[in-house]
Design goal:
Blueprint: H1 2-8, H2 10-22, E1 44-46, H3 49-53, E2 59-64, H4 74-87, E3 96-100, H5 104-116, E4 119-124, H6 130-138, E5 142-145, H7 150-160, E6 165-166, H8 175-192, E7 197-201, H9 206-218, E8 223-229, E9 265-269, H10 271-285, H11 291-307, E10 314-319, H12 333-338, E11 367-369, H13 374-380, E12 386-390, E13 396-401, H14 402-410, E14 438-441, H15 451-457, E15 463-472, E16 475-485, H16 486-502
Parallel strand pairs: 2-10, 3-4, 3-6, 4-5, 7-8, 7-10, 8-9, 11-12, 14-15
Antiparallel strand pairs: 1-2, 12-13, 15-16
Helix pairs in contact: 4-5, 4-8, 5-6, 8-9, 10-11
């Protein structure tokens, strides 16, 4: 069998081996003193399948920033800002770092801090993936999650001991765009010569401002496109701000280092479009990128199609970070299904396509107003682990659980300049909602949800809130009616099977 396989595939295997043997790499036959030698000089990869599948005739190149050592474009600015601070005499023997971040800069600074044997504190919001958090922690960083403004918390820490705390402040530090001007933009131009379109998502705006300026200087006719998440108003100033799931780009504030004058246009990208495209890039091109990479690629395709780019034109799309940060998010089918971004798989079980209304949901869960306290919530949840939280007008806001409150009580916020911040049971319950609370609307655009879909959602969630969408004054609100758990689904399957066997 083995010999037959070898003979059958001799040409294709031999061709691949020959290609590998003759491939020239700058890293062959060399020894490096530090992993930091690999920051920057990321590959520029020509896409093959995606342009063809979308009827695009120009060349699209992916700048693979996720191939930096710690997995993102932020390796460049973390290293450059640290080196600049060191040259300026700001880093001393007892220095500690503190930085507000949406995730990747925190990983980059934690990465460098570990190599420098320096303590580092990363302040981040609730939106960031668990993978980002645990990566920083394994690098030795102290992570501080806050419901408030991460920048203000970080500045408070720095101000508590300004002689020893160093805050690099990626949002205001001009080293951020400068390193992209001096390196990222140069790498792209040296590889391609001419660039007709440059597409990038904006978090701090450093990549767009730095690399964009360098590219514009050499190629003044180059069109610069910003990928704007739906719900962000960084460029879409007339849009309605609302939460979105793509991490690391967009927002309501324009960072100081972002030069919006460089941007020729922006393309709005929905969460669904971004995550489906990320999965497409991974599957079709083998580039293991993250969600904001998908957003940038969707923006590029929209911009190319609008401008009718033709053969011979060059489009560069920045892929900022890697798949690693999102293994429990868009990489997981059930997570995508829970957000109605893809359909659940077909299943032969007789109950799979039954509507969720067939479930007998025997438990009654308390409904709390957003201005009730955690103490009141615990008293209301004496017999159940879950409570639904609504706004004062009755619209669904989220859910709170005893286990979630237990986790906060046993893992309190640790600010280095203050005593441990214990859970305040007089806090509004709306400040302690479950981070990932999935809902199912019985009148969703996809129609009545099935028990099969619910069971898939319960693979990645402890419970699912079931209700209806209500349309009022041009807006859609979710009104909760019940809560479904794994017990409810299992009981339904068991009872149905038992009844069928008895017939």
């Amino acid at each position: 069998m083995f010999n037959l396989f070898q003979a059958k595939h001799k040409y294709s295997l031999g061709h691949k081996v020959a290609h590998l043997n003759h491939r020239r790499s700058p890293y062959v036959n060399k020894v490096y003193n530090s992993i930091l030698d690999f920051v920057g000089n990321t590959p520029l990869i020509k896409l093959n399948k995606i342009p063809k599948d979308y009827g695009i005739h120009c060349d699209i190149y992916a700048k693979c920033e996720f191939m930096n050592p710690s997995g993102s474009a932020k390796d460049r600015i973390a290293l450059a800002m640290l080196q600049d601070a060191e040259k300026g005499g700001f880093i001393k023997e007892d220095s500690k770092f503190v930085e507000p971040t949406s995730g990747n800069t925190g990983i980059g600074i934690a990465f460098n801090s570990a190599l420098m044997d320096k303590k580092c504190y990363i302040v981040m919001g609730e939106k960031n993936s668990r993978e980002k958090l645990t990566t920083m922690q394994v690098l030795g960083a102290e992570t501080i999650k806050t419901n408030g403004t991460s920048i203000q918390v970080a500045r408070d820490i720095k101000d508590s001991d300004p002689e020893n705390y160093v805050m690099l402040d990626q949002f205001e530090n001009n080293v951020n765009p400068r390193v992209h001007y001096e390196n990222t933009g140069v790498e792209i131009l040296e590889a391609l010569g001419d660039v007709d379109m440059f597409v990038v998502g904006c978090g701090t705006g450093g990549t767009l401002s730095g690399a964009g300026q360098r590219i514009k200087e050499k190629c003044p006719k180059c069109t610069i496109i910003a990928a704007e998440p739906a719900g962000s108003t960084m460029f879409n100033v007339s849009g309605i701000p609302h939460p979105y799931l793509v991490e690391g780009i967009g927002g309501q504030e324009v960072p100081i280092v972002l030069d919006k004058s460089l941007v020729d246009d922006f393309e709005i990208v929905t969460d669904k479009e971004a995550f489906l495209m990320s999965r497409e890039i991974i599957r079709k091109e083998g580039l293991l990128c993250g969600g904001s990479s998908g957003a940038a690629m969707v923006a590029a395709i929209k911009a190319i199609q609008k401008r009718k780019f033709t053969a011979g034109q060059h489009v560069v799309v920045v892929l900022p970070d890697s798949i690693r940060n999102y293994m429990t998010k868009f990489v997981t089918d059930q997570w995508m299904e829970a957000h109605l971004f893809i359909d659940p798989p077909q299943h032969a079980s007789p109950w799979w396509n039954d509507p969720v209304t067939h479930l007998t949901l025997g438990h009654t869960y308390p409904i709390l107003s957003s201005d009730q306290t955690c103490s009141e919530a615990i008293l209301e949840m004496m017999k159940e682990n879950i409570a639904i939280v609504v706004e004062t007008n009755g619209n669904f806001l989220g859910a709170v659980t005893k286990d979630g409150l237990r986790s906060e009580a046993t893992n309190p916020m640790r600010l280095p300049h203050k005593s441990i911040q214990e859970l305040n049971f007089q806090d509004f319950v709306s400040d302690h909602l479950v981070k990932d609370c999935f809902t199912l609307a019985k009148n969703s655009e996809r129609g009545m949800p099935t028990i099969g879909l619910l069971s898939r959602m319960l693979d990645v969630a402890q419970f699912v809130v079931i209700g209806r969408n209500v349309h009022e004054l041009g807006q859609t609100h979710f009104v909760a009616e019940s809560v479904a758990t794994a017990d409810d689904v299992l009981n339904y399957i068991f009872v149905n099977r038992t009844q069928k066997k008895s017939k």
